[in-house]
């Protein structure tokens, strides 16, 4: 096997365990060490590393006049240079295969989160605009949702095609809701996306879902930046 | 439709697209116009990934490795489609999207009489090499290897050849595996040919068109070209990643026209090239002397027991400290090479304390470390060049292509496998490069000689012997 990130050869370790239950590694140990998940105390609402229980951003969200649409966010990884490199290659250059790097950890952390919340959730990936989907060939959020062991529902759709990554925080806060629901859902929803930055996109999506009669919306994201 | 384009726009388009294999999004035309061009067969689509029962081949980078191909699910076609991961940083090559080749009339490159504005003098050895290069280009010989020691003025030897090629209206590409070298070459070539437009292409360069008559490029960028140049000059032929990555050799050979001339420049040819020279399969010219006429500094070896243990603890060997304090010429700057990135920062702080205690430097800002993934790499290197830094601790990224006028060089743990023969010769070649200070100390600190070290020293001594300095 070749490591997906550094293209070095992976030498499979042979022990009784791996001989009986062979596991296919997609990245080498050196790269795996660089991919560290968020650990230690974190904000209970948005998963940012924080010792205070709730971070400043979340306190701000609570104070907004309309009720906060997103109940809670769980992220797996913090954002750093190494992660940025992978995401650039995966999302923007379109190396579809790189999504598989996160598969195992994403699942493990999902089970860890779902323990604390009830089951019977439906996963809804954040959609791309049609134009961007055409250009990229795949939707990274849908790919992440495929990793999860719960039913998926591609009920959201995005109108217009503005890039969030290029905007400042203020611009994001003011932007109009770009989502529309194709079909209403009456089950609790887990929104799946790659990055939680300000949480604006996820909240827009959650608002649309709540307005159409969805009881509860939480989100599960790969990265908290 | 096509007639609507003005002549100047059309000519620009020809220069941008001729001799390349382009993705649709790299062609600067809107959809209607592009279809008109396709209809007239000015752009020909060719399949981007060749599929045989056993292997796939990427048409752009020549990749055949199975691990470097992957599949993604296409929702429109409801099936898996293959894409190439090897050259993905230049835009994804995907099975369903063809590459386009310019099939219209070829670009007409201007003929320039005496384009060279460089007024320096060449030494006898340089003149000989420079004439050989020019003759090879003018007589359209297929390949020539220029073997010239570090600091012999390789770039200046090219000027006569480039001038001759420009007189014939040829298109020229100067390619090198190292991005640092591209950045260093651009101002030098531009100064020597001040009236000719020159573009530099590398990952992250502002210039992306690649439409000028002279192009300076990193070898990766040549993946886009096909039969585009009359002359391709490859500087630092033996540098990483060129010798290790077969797709780069594939790309440079394809970028050359069938009647074109390939010129390889190197100070340390690998065994493969040396064997070709021995068997007379490759024409070559040899320059064993530096431009200032002084011999290459010969490295000293210095044994340090328990070197590895000390490095792990984050201290430096005693012999190194002794050398640090007793250098002949303390005015010289210091370049210290280490095998790994993690060591550079540790050792840099250690060296700072030593130098500070011996009152050789006064301030922490006079010493720093740099490595390949350092975001401030360019700034630090230029600071060292401007002599605002006294000591630079580095990995092998600075082994070649960079010139500092007056430095002493130390390699700590020279026995490490990253320091192969070529790397050691190149590193030793950083010392004594200016005519004002043609000497410099080079010391290998090691805990056991390796073949690479012995061979590197033997190589340098041989070059000096061939240059006529010693018997």
Automatic annotation (TrEMBL), chain A:
Q: Which CDD domains match?
A: PRTases_typeI
Give a Pfam family name.
Pribosyltran
Domain Phosphoribosyltransferase, by residue range, is 166-224
Q: What family does the database annotate?
A: Belongs to the ComF/GntX family.
Indicate what this protein is called per its UniProt record: Competence protein ComFC
Q: Which organism is it from?
A: Virgibacillus chiguensis
Lineage of origin = Bacteria, Bacillati, Bacillota, Bacilli, Bacillales
Automatic annotation (TrEMBL), chain B:
The UniProt keyword set, sorted, is: ATP-binding, DNA-binding, Nucleotide-binding
Q: Known InterPro entries for this protein?
A: Helicase/UvrB_N (IPR006935), Helicase_ATP-bd (IPR014001), Helicase_C-like (IPR001650), P-loop_NTPase (IPR027417)
UniProt signal peptide: none
Instruction: Supply the name of the protein.
Output: Competence protein ComFA
Give start-end ranges for the coiled-coil region(s). Answer: none
GO biological process assignments: DNA recombination; DNA replication initiation; double-strand break repair
In terms of SMART domains, this protein maps to: DEXDc, HELICc
Question: Pfam families, per this entry?
Answer: Helicase_C, ResIII
Q: Where is the Helicase ATP-binding domain?
A: 135-287
Residue stretches making up the Helicase C-terminal domain: 315-471
**UniProt keyword annotation of Nucleotide-binding present:** yes
Q: Which GO terms describe its molecular function?
A: 3'-5' DNA helicase activity; ATP binding; DNA binding; hydrolase activity
